[in-house]
């Protein structure tokens, strides 16, 4: 389910209002599913940034830079784009760029307005 341009925390709240959550990409298979979903919605031509359910705002000091999934704690899967993660101040929220060649993960300030993808309970088949 797509969400319009909002800050990371706002998109998280909007997803929960629909009984969902920001999509948690926790495996290569799930990453591929999200990539296919985004490409199907835009024909793969849009280059909009899309928030996903990973942050290090609350996980500083945990493994892999403190990145956590919004529901399960320390993240088991991260596929960073070249040059990422940024280590500048307040780049605590993760996104992917729809239509980029690799859909790899990037981080930026949480107060930027990006679109987002919500998911309902993930059962292995994927409902976004």
Automatic annotation (TrEMBL):
PROSITE patterns: C_TYPE_LECTIN_2 (PS50041). It holds the Pfam family Lectin_C. This is C-type lectin domain-containing protein. Transmembrane segments: none annotated. Gene3D superfamilies: Mannose-Binding Protein A, subunit A (3.10.100.10). Residues 8-119 form the C-type lectin domain. SMART domains: CLECT. It comes from the Eukaryota. InterPro entries: C-type_lectin-like, C-type_lectin-like/link_sf, C-type_lectin/snaclec_domain, CTDL_fold.
């Amino acid at each position: 389910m797509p969400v319009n341009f909002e800050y990371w925390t706002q998109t998280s709240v909007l997803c929960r209002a629909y009984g969902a959550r920001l999509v948690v990409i926790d495996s290569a298979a799930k990453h591929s599913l999200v990539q296919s979903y985004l490409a199907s919605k835009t024909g793969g031509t849009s280059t909009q940034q899309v928030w996903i359910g990973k942050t290090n705002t609350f996980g500083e000091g945990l493994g892999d830079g403190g990145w956590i999934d919004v529901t399960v704690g320390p993240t088991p899967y991260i596929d960073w784009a070249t040059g990422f993660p940024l280590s500048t101040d307040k780049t605590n929220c993760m996104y992917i760029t729809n239509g980029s060649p690799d859909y790899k993960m990037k981080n930026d300030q949480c107060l930027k307005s990006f679109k987002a993808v919500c998911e309902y309970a993930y059962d292995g088949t994927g409902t976004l």
